[in-house]
Amino acid sequence: MTTAEPVLTVRGLSARAGGQQVVEHVDLDVAATGVTALLGRNGVGKTSTIKAIMGLVERTGEVTLAGKRIDGLEPHRVARLGVGYVPEDREVFSALTVTENLRIAERPGVEHRYDLVYEVFPELKERGGQAAGTLSGGQQQMVALGRVLINDNAVLLIDEPTKGLSPRLVQEVGRVLATAAEVAPVLLVEQNLKVVRDLARDVVVLTGGRSVHHGDAREFLEDDRLTQRFLGVHGGEGESA
Ligand SMILES: Nc1ncnc2c1ncn2[C@@H]1O[C@H](COP(=O)(O)OP(=O)(O)OP(=O)(O)O)[C@@H](O)[C@H]1O
C-alpha cells in the first residue's frame, strides 16, 4: 500500500443506468502511483463505476481528484482536468486514420507526448495513414491507449483493455499498461488475473454494485477464499475471473 495521498477518492458513489441502480454507495481510492485494480464478477458495476467517475451516467456521491471535487462536472471538464479514460469497447473513430485518432485526442494546454506513444507503439507511426476501422482489435486497443498517453494526465481509467485479445496481445497490452502506470496512476478494470497480479499493487472489489473489499493485490489474489467468493475463481488460476 502506498503512503502518499490517493490521487482519486470516491465516496458514497451511486449511479443509475437504464432506469436501474447499478452502483450503490461505492467507496474507493486510487493510489497516487501504480495500478489499482477494480475487480468483480461480470455485471457487478465496474464499468458503471468508471462511467460515474467520468460523469457519463447519472450519479450521486463524492469524487475528488487531487483534493478537488469533480463530481459536479460534465465529462469533458473531468477529462480536461486530467482524467484519461479508455472505454471497454475501445471506441476508435473507424473512418479516421490512426494519426487523426491521436490528433483528435490532444488536450489543449498540455504537452503532447507523441515521442512516448510512438516509442511504446511503433506500429502506430508505421500505420499512421491507415483508417482505424481496418485495424485488428489489438491494434485498435493500442490506438485507444495511445490516445490517453498523448496527454499529461493526472490519472487513467482503463476498462478491460485485454478483453477478447489473443494471449500474445494480452502480454503486449500488459507491457503498455506497465509503461502507462509509470507516467500516471491507473484505475484498471481487468478480468485477466495474471495481468492484475503482474501490475496491480492495490485492489478494490465490487459485488452487486457495492465495494466490498479494499487491500493489497497480492494478498487478495493469494487468498483463495476471497477470490472464490468475489470472483468465482482460484486466485492462482491466472486467467479470466
Ligand atoms: N444502460 C444500461 N441499461 C440497463 N442496464 C444496464 C445499463 N448499463 C449497465 N446496466 C446493468 O448494470 C449492471 C452493471 O453493469 P456494468 O457494465 O457496470 O458491470 P461490469 O461489472 O462492468 O460488467 P462486465 O464485467 O460484464 O463488463 C449490469 O447488470 C448491467 O446489465
UniProtKB/TrEMBL annotation:
Choose any GO biological process term that the UniProt entry carries and state it: L-amino acid transport
Q: Which UniProt keywords apply?
A: Amino-acid transport, ATP-binding, Nucleotide-binding, Transport
Q: What GO molecular function terms would the record report?
A: ATP binding; ATP hydrolysis activity; branched-chain amino acid transmembrane transporter activity
CDD domains cross-referenced by the UniProt entry: ABC_TM1139_LivF_branched
Write down the SMART domains for this protein, in alphabetical order: AAA
PROSITE patterns tied to this protein: ABC_TRANSPORTER_1, ABC_TRANSPORTER_2
Q: Which Pfam family would be a valid example here? A: ABC_tran
InterPro entries from the UniProt entry: AAA+_ATPase (IPR003593), ABC_transporter-like_ATP-bd (IPR003439), ABC_transporter-like_CS (IPR017871), BCAA_Transport_ATP-bd_LivF (IPR052156), P-loop_NTPase (IPR027417)
> Which residue intervals define the domain ABC transporter in the entry?
8-233
Task: Tell me the protein family, please.
Answer: Belongs to the ABC transporter superfamily.
What is this protein's record name? Amino acid/amide ABC transporter ATP-binding protein 2 (HAAT family)
